[in-house]
TrEMBL record:
It catalyses: alpha-D-glucose 6-phosphate = beta-D-glucose 6-phosphate. This is glucose-6-phosphate 1-epimerase. The keyword Nucleotide-binding does not apply. It comes from Canavalia gladiata (Sword bean). Belongs to the glucose-6-phosphate 1-epimerase family. Its EC number is 5.1.3.15. It comes from the Eukaryota. One of its GO terms (cellular component) is cytoplasm. SUPFAM superfamilies: Galactose mutarotase-like (SSF74650).
Length: 383
């Protein structure tokens, strides 16, 4: 008996992600049998549809179809908490057993909230942030690539923060995240990027939350057959009590480009960086660990990073903040940007090569001081 068309079409539909396939016997090397059984109820009867699919693949070659089948056969991870209310940008809520949480937008792959177990917000968000899906949202944490700032011909701070990312179900070679405190996102270059960059690429971003720690692992893959060169930063808007109470340690004696002085190069002379007006600097070849100490809040942010040798320190100060349309008058007091970055030497990827960065943000109580920067880790990294 042949299956009526009206039943065959939903049966074929059922062959997609929503059904679990079972792996049948392997008949010989390079062949495999996949089986699916579904039950259809019509008004009068119930019909069992059994579908068997034989797959052949060539020895020694990776078959992308097989790897997608394997991905379907993997045990299902816990569903993510995704919210998509009307008029609100789709967001993923990451939660962690101690009570800390984070919110990640698909738009820009941006982290717009990170709260500790006492529900205190650790990230700054502008009181005039533009929450529409067209411009970047001032605040939180975002991955800026393939260009930092306006050094180059591409969109300022790159296109990654102004695009809608998707969930990345197969973040290999990273293992898939299987809990509700981690999310993997992917963004592929579009025709618009290609017009300006003339090279196709993929961005991937893993955001993981654990007790008092937020980890970001950005990746850039060159999917073209010519070399790709790019600069990047992870822009961190940290919430502080008052910028005049903040000092940044770990950057002393380093060279920096001063963006307020036509990117001229200077050497830091101060013991630590403090703020009494606008500051916009790119510190070069920094240690892997930087401390941002908030005396009034008695809280220290510890920024640890790998594969991003530079660090941007930015606060607009009173005057510049007035000229920034999406920033409230006093907002500059309650924020500091200290970004992990690769700016001085652009990253160059050969065809199909992938770059992987790493950033870990954590908080400790303010008894922290520069003496606690572990010299070994500062010199040799923390992995
Ligand atoms: O105003 P935006 O384009 O978001 O840039 C905000 C800031 O980002 C970085 O920190 C740059 O070093 C600054 O020069 C820039 O002002």
């Amino acid at each position: 008996m042949s299956l009526p068309k009206q039943l065959l079409s939903p049966a074929l539909k059922a062959m997609n992600l929503h059904q679990t396939w079972t792996l049948g016997e392997t008949q010989s090397y390079g062949h495999c049998l996949l089986k699916l059984q579904t039950n259809y109820k019509t008004a009068h009867n119930s019909i069992i549809v059994k579908i068997a699919l034989k797959l052949d693949w060539r020895i020694g070659k990776v078959n992308p179809f097989m790897s997608s089948i394997r991905a379907r056969l993997r045990p299902r991870p816990m569903p993510l908490n995704i919210f998509q209310d009307i008029d609100v940008l789709p967001r993923i809520i990451l939660a962690e057993p101690t009570g800390s949480s984070a919110e990640v937008l698909l738009y820009g792959g941006q982290v717009v909230s990170w709260k500790n177990e006492r529900k205190e917000e650790l990230l700054f968000m502008s009181s005039k942030a533009n929450w529409k899906q067209s411009k970047s949202i001032r605040g939180g944490i975002s991955f800026c690539s393939p260009q930092f700032g306006n050094i180059g011909s591409l969109e300022k701070h790159g296109s990654a923060k102004n695009r809608l990312w998707s969930l990345d179900r197969d973040p290999s070679p990273l293992p898939p995240s299987d809990n509700q405190s981690s999310v993997d996102l992917i963004l592929k270059s579009t025709g618009v990027d290609l017009k300006t960059k003339t090279c196709s690429f993929e961005f991937r971003l893993r955001i993981s939350l654990s007790a008092d720690k937020l980890i970001l692992i950005p990746r850039v893959r060159n999917t073209d057959n010519k070399a790709l060169s790019f600069t990047s930063s992870i822009s961190n808007y940290l919430s502080v009590s008052d910028i005049s109470e903040v000092r940044v340690e770990g950057l002393e004696t380093l060279d920096y480009f001063d963006n307020l002085m036509n990117r001229s190069r200077f050497t830091e002379q101060a013991d630590a960086i403090t703020f009494d007006g606008q500051m916009d600097r790119v510190y070069l070849r920094t240690p892997t660990k930087i401390a941002i100490i908030d005396h009034e809040k008695k809280r220290t942010f510890v920024l640890q990073k790998n594969a991003m040798p530079d660090a941007v320190v930015w606060n607009p100060g009173y005057r510049k903040a007035k000229a920034v349309p999406d920033m409230g008058g006093d907002d500059y007091k309650f924020m500091i940007c200290v970004d992990s970055a690769a700016i001085e030497n652009p990253i160059v990827l050969r065809p199909f090569e992938e770059w992987k960065g790493y950033q870990e943000l954590s908080t400790v109580s303010s008894s922290y001081c520069s003496g606690q920067l572990d010299p070994h880790k500062v010199l040799y990294g923390f992995h």
